[in-house]
Amino acid sequence: MSTTEELEHQFFEEDLQFLIKTLQESFESTEVQYFIDEHNDILFVKLEGLDEYPEEEIAEIAEPIFEVLDLDFDEIVLLSL
Q1: Is the Cα dihedral 13, 27, 53, 50 positive or negative?
Q2: Helix axes of 55-68 and 3-26: crossing angle, nearest 10 degrees
Q3: Cα–Cα distance between 19 and 11 in angstroms, integer?
Q4: What is the pLDDT at residue 69?
Q5: What is the mean pLDDT of residues 49-59?
Q6: Architecture of domain 3-80
Q7: Coarse DSSP helix, strand, coil percentages of the chain, rounded to the nearest 5 percent
Q8: pLDDT for residue 1 is more than 60
Q9: Which residue has the higher pLDDT, 6 or 44?
Q10: Which of 15, 26, 32, 38 is most open to solvent, judged by the fewest CB atoms within 10 Å of its CB?
Q11: Where are the domains of the chain?
């Protein structure tokens, strides 16, 4: 891996961890898990307690977070843990 690729990967990992931490804090989750489906370019994030939020509120909380971060996923799916 070249230095440029290594830096890009490092920045991606940092952005991903920031996203996960921000979602965890925003939904007041004590536990979070995530999985990347590289084939379909989808990020799955499982958040403890997400099922306590109505769908509209989940969208209100998550959409601004997704807009701020420029992660190259076709889709980000939030699931209850």
Answers
A1: positive
A2: 150
A3: 12
A4: 78
A5: 95
A6: 2-Layer Sandwich (3.30)
A7: 50, 20, 25
A8: no
A9: 44
A10: 38
A11: 3-80
